[in-house]
Amino acid sequence: MKKILFLIYIVGSICYSQKFKNLAETPPLGWNSWNTFATDIDEQLVKDIADQFVELGLKDAGYEYIVLDDGWMAKERDKNGNLMAHPEKFPSGMKALADYIHSKGLKFGLYNCAGATTCAGYPGSRGHEYQDALLYASWDVDYLKYDWCDTDKLNAEGAYITMRDAIKSAGRPIVFSICEWGDNEPWKWAKDVGHSWRVTGDIVNCWDCELGHGSWASFGVWKIINLRKNIRKAAGPGHWNDFDMMEVGNGMTDAEDRSHFAMWSMLASPLILGNDLRTISKETLKTISNKNVIAVNQDPLGIQGFRFLNENNIEIWVKPLDNESWAMVFVNMNNEPINLNFDWNKHMIGDDINNRILDVKHNVYKINDLFNNTSLGNTSKKLKATIGVHDVLMIKLQKS
C-alpha cells in the first residue's frame, strides 16, 4: 500500500508541477474592474461591460477577458470553507455571471490573494488553494489574478507554485496572473509558474508622478516604464512581464493615452483596460481599438521592446516583429511640440538578445504610421514629423 501511495504521489507531482501550456501565447487582452471601480462592483456592471465589448467592437479587436478584481466575494466563507459571491452585489452567483460572459464569446476572470485576506480585507486563499481552484473550475473561470497582501512570512515563489499546482489539479485551463508587484523578482522564477507577472506596484492615472499611500506608493506611466531594468529577456509566448492594468481613458490627455497604449504594446505587456466602457470617449475608443497598434502587442515573436535612444528628450523605442519587420515609437517627453528629423543612416538599430538587425544600409523599409494608418515613405529619406506634447509617433517598418 505504501508503494502504491508513493507512486500516486510521484505521478501527481509530475502531472501538476507545471502550469497549463498553450495559454497566453500572446499577451492577454481584456478589462479589469479595479482602476475605476475598486470594490464598488456588481453583476449588472459586469454584464454592461460584456455588452460594451461587443457593441464597441472591442471583441473584434481582440479583447476577450473580463476580470473581476477585489470585492466580488462575501466577507466570510461558508460553513464548508468555500468562497461565496457577495450576496448583494452578485445575487445570481459567479457561475451565472460566467455563463453570461461566455454567451458573448468572451472569457471570465476572478481575483484572489495568496494571503489570509485580500488587499481589501476579503477572504484570501491561504490554506484554501486547492479548494478555491476546484471552485473556480466549477464556475468556468478562465483567468485568475492572484495578489500578495497579508502574506506574513510566506515565500512568494512557493506560494505561487502552490496555487499553480492547485489550478492544474482542478483540471480547467486558467490563465494565471501573478501579482506580487515585482518585489520578489518574478521574472527570474515565474516563467513556469504563471502566464504573466506584475513587475511594479500599482499604476495611477498620471504621466510621470508617484503617489504615496503611507508604506507604499503608486506610479505614473513613465515611473512604471523606468522602474525595472534588464527584464525584457524574461518575456515571451506564454510568459509576460506585466506593467499593470492601463489607465487609458481615466483622466490623462488623449496624447498621453496614445503614448501609454503604444508603450504597453511595445513592452509586450498584457493590454488590460481599466476604464468605464459605458462612458468612453470617441478618442479613447479610437486609441484602444487600433488594430495596427494591437498587432504590435500581439506579434507572434513575443519580443519585448526596448529603449534605443533619447534624442532631444524624444524617447525612441524599438521592437523586432515577425517577418523581419520592426515597430518604433518616438515619444515627445517635452512640454511643447517638437519637430522630429530622424536620419536612418546615422543610427545602427539592433537587438543583441534576439540577434535582430534593422539593416537600412542594404534594405529599404516602408514606413507606416500605425495610429493614423498612413504611409510615411521609406527609410531612403529622413523621417520628419511634428509630435505634440507627450504624444507619440508609432511606426512599423517593413522591407520594400
Describe this structure in words.
Helices cover 26% and strands 23% of the residues. The protein has eleven helices and 20 strands. Mean pLDDT is 95; it is low at 1-16. The strands form five sheets. An eight-stranded parallel sheet has the order 9-6-5-4-3-2-1-10. The protein has helices at 2-16, 34-37, 43-55, 58-61, 93-103, 129-138, 156-170, 221-227, 254-266, 282-288, 291-297; strands at 29-32, 65-67, 107-113, 143-147, 175-178, 196-198, 210-212, 217-219, 240-242, 271-273, 306-311, 314-320, 326-332, 338-342, 349-351, 356-358, 365-369, 374-378, 383-387, 392-399. It is an alpha/beta fold. Helix 6 packs across helix 7. The chain folds into two domains: 15-297, Aldolase class I (TIM Barrel, Alpha-Beta Barrel); 306-399, Golgi alpha-mannosidase II (Immunoglobulin-like, Sandwich), CATH 2.60.40.1180. The protein is globular. Strand 2, helix 5 and strand 3 (107-113) form a beta-alpha-beta unit.
Strand content: 15-25%
CATH architecture of the largest domain: Alpha-Beta Barrel
The count of β-strands is: 20
Number of domains: 2
CATH class of the largest domain: Alpha Beta
Average pLDDT figure = 95
Cross-sheet strand order for the largest sheet: 9-6-5-4-3-2-1-10
Molecular shape: globular
- Low-confidence parts, pLDDT < 50 over ≥5 residues? 1-16
CATH superfamily of the largest domain: Aldolase class I
Largest sheet composition: 8 strands, parallel
**C-alpha termini separation:** 69 Å
Helical content, roughly? 25-40%
CATH topology of the largest domain: TIM Barrel
Measured on Cα atoms, how large is the radius of gyration? 22 Å
Structural class: alpha/beta
Number of helices: 11
